[in-house]
Amino acid sequence: MDSSIAPQISRRDLFRVGGVGAAGLSLAALTGCSVFGSGSGGSSATTFTIAYFGDQKSATALQKRLAPKIRSIDKSITLSINAVNGTDWNDFFSKILTQIAAGSPPDIVGVPTEGLQLLAEKGLAIPLDDYVTKDMSKLKSYFADVHPSLVEAMMYKGHLYELPVDFNAGNMFFDTTLFQRAGVAAPAPDWTFDDFEAAGRKIATLPNVNAFDWVVRLWGSWTSFMYANGGNLLEEGKYAGGDWLWNTAYAGDSAAKGRQGGWKWGQPTANSAAVVESLEYMIELKKAGLSPSPDVGGGGTLQGLFSANRIGMAIGGGFWAGGLHDAGMKNGSFDVQYFPTGKVQRQLLGTGGYAIFKSSKKKDLAWEIVKLLIEPESFDIIYPGNTTTSARRSLSTAARYKTTGPEHWQTFYDSLSDVDVAPIPAPPIYNALATSLNQRTTQAISTGNAKSALDGMQRDLESALASKS
Amino acid sequence: MTTQLAVRPRARAAAPPKRSKKARRGEAVFGYAMIALSVVFVGVFTFLPILASLGLSFFSWDILSRPKFVGLQNYGRLLHDGPVLHSFVTTIVLAIVIVVLQIVIGLGLAVLVQQRRHKATQTVFRTVFYLPLLASTASVAIFMGYLFDQKFGVINYYLGLVGSGDVPWLTSSFGASVTIVLVTVWQQVGFTFVLISAALTSLPRDILEAAAVDGAGPIRTLARIKLPLISPTLFFATVVGLINAMQLFDQPFIMTKGGPGSATTTTVMVIYQSAFNNLQFGYGSAISIVLLLLILLVTGIQFAASRKVVFYQ
How does it sit in the membrane (chain B) (predicted)? Predict the structure, then answer.
């Protein structure tokens, strides 16, 4: 129906009349999965709310660490960091959206690549262009420290929505103990799919060990193989614009050459030859006994198995350094290398930062806090223990990885400059894409028919795009 | 004398004392006050949301923008939506298998436990069988997900000890469906068991003794006497079990995410995905209304069929 003639009812009216309409959904059929009424409370005049992906215990600890810094900006402000649990970013972001719908949006929220375009498309977050332009002189050192590929991934339609705080590129971790036991040399930076397979075949001979393991998700899944095979789930393009930033913050930086106004995800290409080949490759790995059936989402189990020396190789980013160390792996028992080269040497990445909500009544304060959060000193407060990679190159140091490892920690940040990198395809219909990716991947693995599954995914994405329009 | 006893007039019931109109009115008000809380609770948390959901099903709404009235468009789309229709089939098949197993296993366990002579033994078994029902479904699903994991699950470990290869419990279509059914039945069977146990315990002893005197064995007594007598309880367990099973969500959502493919994607999962993942709340509402109607239809069929197979004393 044409929206111009369709009756328009405000969201609040609908809630009022319908008695929390969406809750009706849950009570009509969704017994036990209501997400409304979480009581986050929203933000009052003196409370500044940040939504945090994690458990409340960590959120409270972070709140205690950050509160003094926030008070240094405004003593009257009480910081409230609300934890939002989720199995993955998809889950987290769904819950954030529900909080927004329930009328209690936070002032700022940690938003990864997965949710950036949806937030921007819906007008829920404000562009930071004016703030950045105003404070450009203060931000020069920040931009000089942050690779432009991360900044470009935070742009949408020419506007900058977040300042990158952290990122993770899809590198390949390997268990050095298992490599030694299997008589396999550590991979070189330019290793190929053939090298990967050859190493895998030797490691697979070890008892109770999987040569390679992975999980079904958008970041660091078979999608890494897809990128290295020159494919993508959606047509790649870039929005025009962004010169206001590139010409000032990155003037003269060769890495910023050709950067535009953010990644533009076009029509679905899920059943293109390069994508089908990639998923078929995963099926072949399983048939060859080099990889088991993957789990869906998360990645905690994968890290657990890796740290128990049950996996030879797995896709991971900088966050694996802290994760494996916490799981008991000693520095030296694992290492990292770029993702192997297929038709091309290309890696995917995801980045994160903080978006300011349009509904926030304290936008200026929010901007000050965003600037506080990107300061080098804030990084370890927010992410203690190498649980992600800082967007600032200056924070990638030998001292940082001295305890946790890996030996080739430079791989994390050098991925941005030495290898072609592109963000995961996260259009405004990201949630539908993630749901379809989960279902169609498991379908392909269980049936052994990648083409049929990806034809289904193509239909899913076309349908999601049609619904959106 | 026998005749006299048979026709002896019943003692005249004592006439209730006459109460004033005011007292009767006060009593009525008290009665209404007593049920008011339940009525308000059910109204606010059940009927109103159902009505709201019905209303929402005529809108296109992503919770972030303004809702747009689309009439019956969501219902029309549903009729041609293959994955959604498939989820209904999956739900019905899983629900039927779950309920049949729940009734059969629940009945079997109840009969076996009733044969224990010691009350204490019966109590122990009742507690043990009911215990899983007290655990949170999500916790059970997470726990079972680890047990049934193909790579490191305990189940495959023990199967490996007897020479079996790794069974793809959660990563093959059939295996995932079987695992979901097993886990659900394991957790829910305690409810059916307790219901049937109570019904068996309350059977009139004189009838059972008469059957024993007439030479009926345990199986004949069960088939011809006990089952007909507890048929109202079995009917109740079937109706409640089917309504619950048709809202299956936690186990597939946590253990398989509806996969592999859409092998274990139930209708409530589709509702969740449509509404909370894809932000199509109107469409999700339309699916939930259709599910509600389907549950009502199935329940209606059960009630119609019950006239022939359920015996009320």
Answer: Multi-pass membrane protein
